[in-house]
Design a protein that fits this description.
heterodimer, A: 286 residues, alpha/beta, Oxidized Rhodanese, domain 1, 2 domains, 11 helices, B: alpha+beta, Sufe protein. Chain: A, three-stranded antiparallel beta sheet, 6 helices
Chain lengths: 286, 149
């Protein structure tokens, strides 16, 4: 855990030092999840397994997540049980590790943590990487009774209702995407969106405001200033966060839920690639 | 159409590998990408270094055309460029080395999934296609300049 962080759920964010001292802890499974699909293969935290957000967490045919049975099989393959503490880290300031953590929460896995600063901080501190892929005895993870789609996930209809009822929507994309000036984030290819802009009434708060230069999360006081003082959100608000495909908004979902203790935050994973292509979806431009 | 011999050899090799070994081979190619950076003292016929809006980092393409009209490339990648693109850098510098301008322009892009495997080619890994386009563009610009002189 990060000392003196004052995060509401401080136990869920762990330091690189903490991870380094737990690489051989059998009750812990360290999980790397990246945007760069071969990055894990080039070297990873000793003992870490790889979860590919696309191959392992998403249905390969329908745009949706895997089913509870698939999740149980994935966890069993890595020797994970419901009691295992899964510590996620990755590239891109932990976008994809927050995304993977969110999917684990979708299936009700509660023992989750994020390594603050992610892969970049681990490397910048000169900590070791290995190409050795660890092997764990398979476990028998029970099939979760359901996916928590209603609790922490939002769909198009939910986001539309949120907009119509003037409830909080947080658009975490870059300012250019929010304004409708561009339909892709800086430094990234176009991912097939026909219209630019944002969901009417959404607040534009780029995910990046929540992190420091070294990819660690900002302090609780700084985060409160952004989301509560500037934006006026309250911990009991029903909030929906979105971006373009749901990974950057997973990061903001994590920040609001665990670092600031918001109780009702949902991630709209369909995000702008659904909204901006949907026939008749209302759009606002600044 | 048929691929240039060196590239065809790489395609054949990669297509014959099981998924795990293909990934290992791609990482090995990625490790070699630095070998294809420009070396001190080298002089090029064309240098095109830029960071396009939709790319994670800068890509520098350095072209040398030999007396027989063969193209030879060196490529310098910014530190944020993804592993797959690093792998493709080595593959393209090796596989396309010595092609004439016309042969280079005729190389189709459809070999990419054959080398990389369809599973690894995703929207956010499209720089692997972008690299070939940049190499072809550099060659086309050089040719245009030559025709003016």
């Amino acid at each position: 855990m990060i000392p003196d962080s004052n995060y509401v759920h401080a136990e869920i964010v762990v330091s690189t030092e903490w991870v380094a001292s737990h690489v051989n802890d059998p009750s812990i499974r360290i999980i790397e999840s990246n945007e760069d699909i071969l990055l894990y293969d080039t070297g990873h935290v000793p003992g870490a397994v790889h979860i590919d957000w696309r191959r392992d967490l998403q249905d390969q045919l329908v745009r949706d997540y895997i089913q509870p049975g698939d999740f149980a099989a994935l966890c069993s393959r890595y020797g994970i049980t419901p009691e295992t503490t899964c510590v996620f880290y990755g590239d891109k300031s932990n976008w994809w590790s927050c995304y993977a953590l969110w999917v684990f929460r979708l299936f009700g896995h509660t023992n989750v943590k994020i390594m603050n600063g992610g892969r970049d901080l681990w490397i910048s501190q000169g900590r070791p990487l290995t190409r050795e892929v660890p092997k764990f005895s398979p476990s028998n993870y029970p099939v979760p009774p359901k996916r928590l789609d209603k609790e922490i996930r939002a769909f198009f209809e939910d986001a539309l209702k949120q907009s119509q009822q003037h409830l909080p929507l947080v658009d975490v994309r870059s300012p250019g995407e929010f304004s409708g000036e561009v339909t892709h984030m800086p430094d990234y290819p176009q991912e097939g969106v026909l219209r630019g802009g944002h969901i009417p009434g959404a607040h534009g708060v780029p995910w990046k405001r929540a992190v420091n230069e070294d990819a660690t999360f900002k302090s609780a006081a700084e985060l409160r200033a952004i989301y509560q003082e500037d934006l006026g959100l309250k911990p009991d608000d029903d909030v929906i966060a979105y971006c373009r495909i749901g990974e950057r908004s997973s990061h903001t979902w994590f920040v609001l839920t665990y670092l600031l203790g918001f109780k009702n935050v949902r991630n709209y994973d369909g995000s702008w690639t659904e909204w901006g292509n949907r026939v008749g979806a209302p759009i606002e431009r600044v | 159409m048929s691929y240039p011999k060196k590239l065809a050899d790489i395609i054949t090799l990669m297509q014959g590998l099981p998924e795990i070994e293909r990934r290992e081979m791609l990482v090995a190619y990625a490790d070699q990408a630095k070998k294809y950076e420009p070396r001190e003292g080298e002089i090029f016929d064309l240098e095109d270094i830029r960071k396009d809006e939709e790319c994670t980092d800068s890509v520098g393409v350095f072209l040398k055309v030999d007396e027989a009209g063969g193209c030879h490339f060196r490529i310098k990648l910014g530190p944020q460029v993804q592993t797959l693109t690093r792998a493709m850098t080595s593959i393209l510098c090796k596989g396309l080395s010595g092609l004439t301008l016309e042969e280079l322009q005729a190389v189709p892009q459809d070999f990419v999934p054959k080398i990389v495997g369809a599973e690894l080619v995703r929207i956010r890994s499209h720089t692997v296609y972008y690299l070939l386009t940049r190499m072809k563009t550099a060659a086309a610009v050089w040719k245009k300049r030559q025709s003016r002189e």
